[in-house]
Specification:
two-stranded antiparallel ribbon; alpha+beta
Length: about 90
């Protein structure tokens, strides 16, 4: 019985060590659902979605960066007339 308890405690300890090394990998950079993507030109694009998610790209979508929106509402639409002037719609 003591061996079983020792083995269980050992496995439990190892599992905590392994979980501490996990990180968000896919889908990166967010797991929130996205509703709309708008590209102002071939390089500059913005995507919006659930929980106030705003993502920006400056290289045609190869890399995306999270932008803080300051809200947790659903952003349902986005439009940019150029890379400096845009409109967001929320629900």
């Amino acid at each position: 019985m003591k061996k079983i308890v020792f083995v269980f405690a050992f496995l439990l300890t190892i599992s905590f060590q392994i979980n501490a090394q996990w990180f968000w990998q896919n889908p990166y950079p967010t797991g929130n659902n996205l509703w709309k993507v708008c590209f102002a030109d071939t390089n500059f694009g913005t995507a919006v979605g659930f929980n106030g998610t705003i993502l920006n790209t400056t290289n045609g979508g190869a890399n995306w960066k999270i932008q803080e929106s300051g809200t947790d509402v659903i952003l349902s639409d986005v439009f940019f007339s150029n890379k400096y002037c845009g409109t967001l719609v929320w629900i």
